[in-house]
Every structure is written in structure tokens, then in C-alpha cells.
Amino acid sequence: MQHIWSPVVEQTLDYYPPPCELEKIVNETIKACDALDGKKDGVVSRTDLCKLHFDANSTIGEPYSCGASSLTTYKRRKRSETYALPAQNGTVSAQGVEVAKEIMRGMHDTKGKQVYFSYQPSAAFSDAETHYDYDTGSWTLDITESNSEWVAKYINLLNATEMPTLKNVTYDNLKEWVRIGWQKYDDTLQATYPDLSPYSEAGGKVLHYHGESDYTVPTASFVHYYESVRRIMYPNMSSNASYAALGDWYRLFLVPGAAHCGPDDSQPNRPWPQKTLETMIQWVEDGVFPEMLNATVLQGEHEGEEQKLCAWPLRPLWKNNGTTMECVNDPEGMKTWVYELIAFKMPVY
Sorted alphabetically, which InterPro entries does this protein's record hold (predicted)? Predict the structure, then answer.
């Protein structure tokens, strides 16, 4: 359902931005938010501070230019289709920024009640990729298998891998589709059960890491899950005590500048964990507690550099002109990760 949110936003606002326009907004976001963590390295390590201090309206009027290229999408029973994209030149429009901001707000119904999370600032707007119609000379919705198969096949129960159109689809339709899917498939697809007591009591350990600029699975969804586990398993503890208790066996690390299951080329100096299995073995077999997680910069000017990742809820902050990194508590920044999913009466874990 997350992947269909962006196309429905574009249809609702009746603006279909060229891919280059959204790419420019992302690049300007990275440029503006890079140094908020105390280190200017082309990596947004603090998307929470970006939410607090960056206004996407500042990108309006910025020029963009992309050469002609090709785009591959997956349609019709997993077969790929590649089509040519024309050169794109222009300036970031108010409509383009409005689309970007609405996508970043996250799925909600027409009354403004939050249905689901969205991506962090600096994540690519991959779900919002539009299709160029050479017949009309305009950009249009790109309805694909990846963004509509779930609704077509599993909600509407059609023998189809994508929806033929999103005409008349509203935010309230999305909410209803989420509810139907939740009721219909909760017993088979539920992957966010928060009571991990049997696993914990058996001595289980979890090393959980997630790219902070993930453009496919919202990073906030896993922060939300971690917080759900903490609240369910340690309901009578103080905040500090419950984080300590959960952190003894379940560690969550957000990877600065990383995308979906890997690095992000738009932030080349970002690190990525390379020795996670080794870290887990040392933790389980040798009792070496992973206070932080090792990560390696794989390209760019800092290629080969080893960096440390902070465990949630601590956040990275560089000091001494970007030479020393500390993991700090930031209550205001932490609030930006909290979504009140009040569109449903049932709790969402």
C-alpha cells in the first residue's frame, strides 16, 4: 500500500512532476541538511533535524536539468519494460514542492487522520516516478505492478497484476484498502507482532539496521515497531529503564544516508554495515556487546573509512569541526519520528 500513496497524491493534486524535478528537490534537501549533524560530508545523518529545520519551499525556483535517459519498470507478470525519457529542463515549481511535501507527510485520510508513515527527508521519490506520454507531450501517472498489484490482486481479488487506472481513487479509498488487507491477511502476513518475550527469554539477540534514507520501506515504520516492542514488553518501566532492558538483547541502528537494503548513490560518502554477522557471532558466543555497530564507507572521497553507528534512541552528533562523533539524546528530534496512527481504532504495531 505504501507504494501507491505517491501516485494517488499526484492524482489528487493534479500535478505529475518530471522525475528530474523531484530529484532536484531531493538533492537540495541533502545539500541543506548535510551539516545539521555537525559534519559536512554529503550525508544526511540527522533526518530528524532536517524535518525540524528545512523548508522544502526554499527549493522553488531552483533550476534542474537532466539529459535524455531510459527507465525500466516492472509490469505484467514481472516482465520489465524500458522506455525512453526525454531531456528535462526547468525550475522547481510550487506544485512540485506541494507534491513532495504531501508525500512526505505520509498516508492520511481526507479528515487528516494518519494512516501510515512516509519516508525521511533525503529519500528519493521513487514511488512518484512519472511516465512521459509522447503523444501528448506531458508527464502522466506511471501505474505499475510494484505500486498497484497488491490492491488489484489481493484487495479487489482481480486476476491482474496492476490496476488499469487510479481514476476516482481517494485518500479514503487507501485507508479502506489498508483496513481490508489488515483484516483479511493479518493471520498470514503479520510481521510486526510486538511481544518477543519467548525469543528474548530463550536468549535470542537482534541486530536490526535500516537505511535512514530508505525510499521503499519507511524508516519510521521500524522505529515505530521498536517502540511498540518496548512499550508492550516493558510497560511498567521508566523510559530510560525500558530502553536499557530492550537494548540488552535488541539493538536498532539507523544507517546515515543509506537507501533500501543498501547504499544510496546520491549520498556517496555514506557508510554501510559490512561485518554484521561477525558482530552477532561475537555477541552471542563471546559476550561482546555491540554498543555501536561498525559500518564502512564504500565509495566517494572517504572510501574505506570505518564509522560507528549509534543505537536507537541515541542520535549521531559530530563535534570539533566534524572530527568527533557522539551518540546523544535529542528529545525534540525524537518527536519527529513519532506518528500517531489514529485513522484506526486498533493499535498499529
Answer: AB_hydrolase_fold, Tannase/feruloyl_esterase
